[in-house]
Amino acid sequence: MHNKYSVINTPVHNVDGIAKVTGRATYTFDVQLPGMLYGKILRSPHPHAKILNIDATEALKLPGVKAVVSGKDTLGIKQGIWRRYKELCDEQVLPMDKVRYIGEPVAAVAAVTEEIAEQALDLIEVEYEVLDAVYEPFDAIKKGAPEVHEGIERNLNVTRHIEWGDVDEAFDDADYIREDWFKCGGQHHMCMETRACVSSYTPEKRLTVYASTQAPYYTQGLLAGVLGMREGDIRVIAPYVGGGFGGKFELDGAMFCSAVLSMKLFRPVKIVFTREEDLIASKRRTPMFYYVRTGVKKDGTFCARESRVFTNGGAYTGMGATALYLTGFFHSFPYKWRGYRYDGYRVYTNTMPSTSMRGFGAPQAMFCSEQQIDWIAADLGLDPIEVRRKNGHTPGYEVPGQAFIGSCGLDQSLDKIEEWIKSRGKLPANRAIGISAAGFMSGGIFNWFDTPYSFSSAVVTINEDGTVELHVGCQDIGQGSNTTMAIICAETLGVKVEDVKVHSGDTDHCPADLGAWGSRQTLMAGNATKMAAAEAKRQLLEFATAKMGPNIVYDLDIKDRWVHLVSRPEKGLDYTQVVKEALRGKEGQRIMGRGFYTPHRKGMISPAYSYMVQAVEAEIDEETGKIGVVNCVTAHDCGQPINPIGLIGQLEGAASMAVGYGYLEYMPFEDGKMMNPNLVDYKVIRAPEMPECEVIEIDTFEPEGPYGAKEAGEGLTNPTAAALGNAIFHATGLQMKECPILPEAVLNAFKEKREKEQEKKNA
Amino acid sequence: MHNKYSVINTPVHNVDGIAKVTGRATYTFDVQLPGMLYGKILRSPHPHAKILNIDATEALKLPGVKAVVSGKDTLGIKQGIWRRYKELCDEQVLPMDKVRYIGEPVAAVAAVTEEIAEQALDLIEVEYEVLDAVYEPFDAIKKGAPEVHEGIERNLNVTRHIEWGDVDEAFDDADYIREDWFKCGGQHHMCMETRACVSSYTPEKRLTVYASTQAPYYTQGLLAGVLGMREGDIRVIAPYVGGGFGGKFELDGAMFCSAVLSMKLFRPVKIVFTREEDLIASKRRTPMFYYVRTGVKKDGTFCARESRVFTNGGAYTGMGATALYLTGFFHSFPYKWRGYRYDGYRVYTNTMPSTSMRGFGAPQAMFCSEQQIDWIAADLGLDPIEVRRKNGHTPGYEVPGQAFIGSCGLDQSLDKIEEWIKSRGKLPANRAIGISAAGFMSGGIFNWFDTPYSFSSAVVTINEDGTVELHVGCQDIGQGSNTTMAIICAETLGVKVEDVKVHSGDTDHCPADLGAWGSRQTLMAGNATKMAAAEAKRQLLEFATAKMGPNIVYDLDIKDRWVHLVSRPEKGLDYTQVVKEALRGKEGQRIMGRGFYTPHRKGMISPAYSYMVQAVEAEIDEETGKIGVVNCVTAHDCGQPINPIGLIGQLEGAASMAVGYGYLEYMPFEDGKMMNPNLVDYKVIRAPEMPECEVIEIDTFEPEGPYGAKEAGEGLTNPTAAALGNAIFHATGLQMKECPILPEAVLNAFKEKREKEQEKKNA
């Protein structure tokens, strides 16, 4: 297809790619400040215990130790990212009263070397009164269970209810009803870069924080809250960030403890988590127990669905409240239901807090929904693709009370995946293809952070040589958003990508933006950038129009640095020349355009939704239970792609994470203790396990997105575990209701199946 | 006097003071980048020689050496800061053809350590053809003298002519004419921080430069010129800068060589000058030979002056062309002349280039003019103060064709100094008080750099908590300009200094500004800052007016964070509340105000002038020639002071430098070689030599300045050497015509005087 754009949808290497591959990119770990100290965090060995006393006397005697801080050195403010709702701000990063999970920070040391700080940890004596603990939501929700937070009855942290239509009537109307229970595990964000922060507090009461964060503005706001400072007195700089995946936009121990230590000492303090700390004491994808009841017509038409979810919230809320809502919303996705009812219960336990992670509740929802749909189709003898086609979202659909669907490429995705499946022909006996549909949001509309700022903002300033300073608040965490913004700016202004310098990750220089989560940046920061660049272009064209003197009904535009009549592109002026003349006209002031975006009139969830259908081809070894993922093909509607190679990178990354979630990444706990907090025992997908990945692009145009773009790269974590489950189902008949689908579970399922068959035979 | 301002003229500690005294301030020397190499520069041992061949073979064999570059690795572009005039762009920082002074860069090495780079220098073999050299302007200007630059006849680099009135007629009208020849020496800028730069060039063709510079925008533009790059592809960051004094706004060897090495290696390269390098191979205050002929009436009324100046320009132009004009202009200062004629000749020699330095040609001019005035007064039996009073500038005066005098506190200054002199009573025989008047500009109007930008620009952005981001392009080099801008911004917007965060020294984030030279920032960047803050306030007041609904003729203002009716200050709103409401009204976009300043209709030199009269009390030991400076009192009209303690710091700093220039700082050369390039032999003033300094503030209001402010801190380097000379004259009758006034010269003068007296007696 002819690309009507000059820059959009042309392959662009990431603007920071060279810095990264040449080792020039400096991460928080690389930050060195004069007089900097190193911090280490003492962590709770108990899942639940009162802190009776902390004695740092011996630790402070160790030469090189400069300070030890604990809860009593803080203002004791409870914080949380749901800033608008005080009751959900439930975490003191250094607790004063008690610890609620193994690994929770109890005290922090600053010393002249990391080694000395580490040694000092052993010298801090903490007197605990160990309390009864509770680890699983169904235990924690019982009457009389230990209270993780005093006064929170049955440890019920948050409940969420979604309902539309007359659910009971719709169930009554169903020909067939099926109900299942599922269990979905946690997953670690496993960023290449562990949590890290350098805080530098100075006597003039200003704090500078270098942090590995997905959202510098959140970090600024959250730190201001707990430190009793003004946001404006805190500068957050996010250097290059080595991944976030939903785990790095809350306040973490590295940030808080380094800040508190620095405020005590008036010296910079660096804290970098070890991999083990990152595994036991950051947060995780929310484990969920899912009850799903679905009623359908004989022909596969969906009538009603009802679901109840109990999540293992761990010790604190964090982003868990959002995940609880989104899993309920996406559990309806991407289908039309006459009646839909969801009840979610987030339950506190004495385990590591659960929070958002790439997919944000949707991978769990799809694992349950999409497998059950295949089982229902099988129960009714229907084609699972046909069932999905019959019930899927279509452009212009309104999810009642929830969402407006502007663009939707679900149908085309189903067609493409059907074609691909056909192309595979007959497969060996132990091998099958499973599919799953999914969709995802393009940023959230909710404002639990209670920001007064536009959700995204951008400033475009044109230098005298035509180069462009683009200041954005959105954060590049490796996903390539700086490149995306450079492309959008270049396209809009009519210049080349290399003309645009993107500045992000510094709250002193960049406008506020909610940051990198919920797949919001391409659409929201993209819209802000487009608006800023368009405004700058408008100002430039004033001068070009004045000079060229075209008929007033003629339009001017800029493309590839050529300012021209749209109707006669050969008539024009050099862009740089127009810039210089405009600069003269403006008495030497640079052209500056500002842009911003906050979603309006787009329902409660998101301004736009991506759609996709994925096929996973897997083979299962009946002897060992071993699963091999052979192919992973996704037909993906992400609207207009901005950068095709960036898109592929994002989608392949999502697939690898999703495959890992489906059958490898497992977080076993015993008595609240994670049993595999290292990269030997915690299995992330490696090259040998990675299947062939293919992405079939479905072209749609999202009216709300910049140049028609919407989400890509997060949503693809949603369908894979379900598609893998369906592949196993079609290959073996096994219905795997627990994620990850471990070989042991497959073996057991085989065994159970054989026993049942034996029983049947015997009967 | 009641201060009508809230912030202006209240004592404010420098905003970066704590960072500096606690050692947190990071200078270019402190910059560390991954993979950084260290550079060293090989310098010419010859004052004048052809470069026949450079062989780096052996140097490159030394383990750890990564590259050696010389002129042939560059584009060979001749550069200079008088960018608008090609013929004055005469310097290749790594010359291709020949060297023109001892210490000139010939080649540069990058290695993994500074020590290895240093060793490698010895291994570079340079074949020279030594040429005849010339060191003094009167030699160099002779026919047949060696040509420093081929084809430049008589080594005449620049000539400047200033003339007004009928000079000859005015001389005819004089009752008394006196003529003298003077000689003024060079002086080293002697910044605490030597020249330093870290350049980091990346394969995407962008260059980041951390440099100790007075003008990041100039550095950016000059580097772009010599490297064949776009300005916008070069980012110049000036970290904390340890002094400039006029020596750090041209391109220097550290900048250029580190950039060329980095471009060759794609790695960051740091070059920091040693003190010796800084002394022999940066630039210096321009040495001048001054002929002055002055005609006066019997009563001391000035009729005419004619002067001719020959400067030792050294090897290249740099800022020398400006210094040549300014010395001629300030030689008329601060007096009214019916006829004035000045001819300046800048002559190339094979010595270190001469350039601008604090005072910018005026200290030399005053040394000659102000001594001669005292001698004339003595010749005619007049009171030297009375002579100055009779002829001094007055507010509203126009220096014909040159300058408009908006405010002038010369008269009051003379009164105050006269009072002080009287208060000293009778002094011991070997002690006397000399005075000197002076004035100085508040930034230059000339645009030799050919910038298309406003001379100064500022952006004020208000955060939701009322804190302010102030982005300015002006550069803090230790003089406190960031504090000055914070004060002006706080006063204008009606907030406190601690609410304002000043951002400067980064061409990617800050608007262009010509930087810190010629005392331009308080007036020019101050005006831009005031305009930006006023515009932000205007936008805020829109919302306050809408809410308060006052009678339309009422005015609102903000002071100390209180938005109120001017006529009823108790009626108002909290500033932060108005900010929050404005933010809501603007859909979450921050209030942003922009300001800029370029002087217009203010003559050819400067938009405003400071005035001062200084008294120096000195004692002279006839036995040894030793000079002791006892007191240094200045009555100083700098308009409205912005920050009284910053002002005192600047004035005391200027006095110390000026006293040093008067009798200590001496740069002897032999065959083109500086004989004392170290801090033992080159004498800067130390605490024991520093006289008591007092500043008597003369209140005026400069209409063109922000809040009435104008120059302070540079002009005070102008009068001191002359006042010291006059003190010596009044104590001893000696007329010292060479600056610095060395003890040897005083001894010789005594001897000569005694011999003359003896001759007279004998006769």
Explain the overall architecture.
The structure is a homodimer of 763-residue chains. Chain A has 763 residues and is of the alpha+beta class. Chain A folds into three domains: 17-23 and 455-597, Aldehyde Oxidoreductase, domain 4; 31-131 and 191-244 and 248-281, Aldehyde Oxidoreductase, domain 3; 284-445 and 603-757, Aldehyde oxidase/xanthine dehydrogenase, molybdopterin binding domain (Aldehyde Oxidoreductase, domain 4). Helix content of chain A is 29%, strand content 25%. In chain A, the strands form nine sheets. The first copy, chain A, has a seven-stranded mixed β-sheet with strand order 3-5-1-12-9-10-11, with helices on both faces. The first copy, chain A, has a six-stranded mixed β-sheet with strand order 7-16-15-14-8-33. The longest helix of chain A is centred in the last third of the chain and has 28 residues, at 521-548. Chain A is globular.
